[in-house]
Design goal:
Largest sheet: 6 strands, mixed
Number of domains: 2
Distance between the termini: 76 Å
Keywords: Membrane, Transmembrane, Transmembrane helix
Strand content: 15-25%
Shape: rod-shaped
Length: 470
């Protein structure tokens, strides 16, 4: 009897515990499902954020690269402006040389002075040069107003003043907007089915422009979630500014021109070895060649070339002096009306000195030094009388880095946001800079200062100066 009771009690206990494992299993399945859903959500957030980080980095780097290209373009424009200025210096020099050669051929034909006198006094080389000018009479037309050389000069001046200057202005004014368009385009490529808008544009001067972001309600939200971005510039003012072509720029041009021997000072004096006057035994007949290409005070190139035979004379009134016989002259004045102080001249020169002695006219009408001077004032006067007028507007302004920002990079920070319907908005901030890094070829340019005269501007990402938003 007891055995039957025990067996009945055991069967009843088993019946009451039947189904409890199922409840536990369902609970575990539910926990697993929650874990999987949570894991899926975390993975989705991480994936979206990683995608947004990569897109923001690519956009910021692209924006900095656009800035670097703009600054490099300004450097190329400045260098091109310099090349045109050097070409214009060559043209005015060719012009004065052409006039010089033509007038020398004219004097040769008039035997004023005779070629044999030059050969006897100064040797066969100078005689050959003087007689060769007979073939140069036609060069005068090349340098006259309307000739080939002034037309070429005017074309260079047009490119300098109207083409390159306009291009430089356009690059400067559009650099920030071009950068912002590049950032938007990169974000659009990374989110092709999302609407990308620039929510707030912070310009260099601090002004702002608002643009509302549209939120489309579509599924899946990740695919069509709208993207907006805003930028903060690290500098308060524009990085570059427009400079006038002042002394520093003029010195730079003069240094570049000094590289060309053709544009160098063309001064030479050949002295005859014979003793001429016992009153002045140290003096000799001289053949003076003078020539120079200069950038005048108005920013225009001008060139002068003269040569004169200075015959030593003496009389009881003034003693020993030099009687000048001009052999050749040419002056391309740019926009100058009168020669500079380094080019003595007279506006009224006698047609000939048959009616008045050379020395008497000089002492009465001029302040020339005909006793120990080294210029060709009479040839200068003839050059000033026969000067052609070449059209030119002078030097133009240029863009360069502000002095206050010379040691600072051009940086900015962008904040990119993506708005979702199923989770909070994601926001990522990233920073990039445009910086100056000289080339390292044989350590060349290593000491070059940051500026827009060498295309050494590059771009890179940098740590954010502000904390990232989560």
């Amino acid at each position: 009897m007891n055995g039957l009771y025990v067996k009945y009690w055991q069967n009843t206990r088993l019946d009451t515990q039947r189904g409890q494992a199922l409840v536990l299993g369902l609970f575990l399945v539910m926990l697993l499902a929650v874990a999987l859903i949570y894991q899926f959500g975390v993975g989705q957030v991480v994936g979206r954020k990683a995608r947004l980080i990569h897109a923001a980095d690519a956009a910021a780097y692209s924006g900095a690269l656009v800035q670097a290209r703009a600054l490099n373009m300004q450097a190329y424009i400045n260098l091109t402006q310099t090349a045109h200025q050097v070409a214009m210096a060559h043209l005015v020099t060719l012009g004065s040389w052409s006039l010089f050669a033509a007038t020398q051929g004219q004097q040769l034909a008039m035997f004023n002075p005779p070629a044999h006198v030059i050969g006897m006094m100064f040797g066969a080389q100078h005689l050959a040069g003087y007689t060769a000018s007979a073939a140069a009479l036609g060069l005068r037309d090349m340098a006259r107003t309307g000739g080939q050389l002034p037309r070429l000069f005017a074309e260079h001046d047009r490119i300098v003043r109207h083409v390159l200057l306009a291009a430089s202005d356009a690059v400067h004014q559009s650099m920030q907007s071009s950068r912002d368009r590049a950032i938007t385009q990169v974000l659009e490529q990374n989110f092709p089915q999302s609407r990308v808008t620039q929510k707030t544009l912070l310009t260099q001067d601090g002004s702002a422009r608002q643009a509302a972001a549209h939120v489309p309600v579509r599924y899946p939200a990740d695919r069509f979630a709208p993207v907006s971005w805003e930028v903060h510039n690290h500098l308060e003012k524009t990085y570059a500014t427009r400079y006038k072509p002042t002394s520093g720029y003029r010195r730079f041009l003069e240094d570049v021109v000094a590289l060309y021997d053709f544009l160098d000072v063309r001064d030479h004096v050949q002295r005859n070895s014979w003793a001429v006057r016992y009153q002045c035994p140290q003096l000799r007949h001289e053949l003076r060649r003078r020539g120079r290409t200069v950038l005048n005070s108005s920013g225009n190139w001008q060139s002068t070339d003269t040569q004169s035979y200075h015959a030593l004379r003496s009389n009881q009134y003034i003693g020993c002096y030099y009687r000048e016989y001009p052999m050749g002259w040419g002056w391309i004045p740019g926009r100058a009306k009168v020669p500079g102080t380094d080019m003595p001249y007279s506006e009224k020169v006698p047609d000939n000195f048959g009616d008045i002695d050379f020395w008497r006219w000089v002492t009465q009408a001029t302040s020339w030094d005909i006793f120990s001077g080294n210029a060709n004032p009479l040839a200068n006067s003839l050059a000033a009388v026969g000067k052609p007028q070449w059209e030119g507007g002078g030097l133009v302004p240029f863009y360069d880095v502000r002095d206050a920002y010379r040691r600072r990079p051009l940086g900015f920070t962008i904040t990119v946001r993506q708005r979702f319907t199923d989770q909070p908005t994601l926001a990522i901030s990233t920073s990039a800079e445009t910086f100056f890094e000289p080339a390292s070829e044989n350590r060349r340019y290593r000491n070059e200062q940051p500026g827009m005269w060498h295309p050494f501007w590059q771009a890179h990402l940098v740590p954010n100066p502000v904390k990232k938003e989560d």
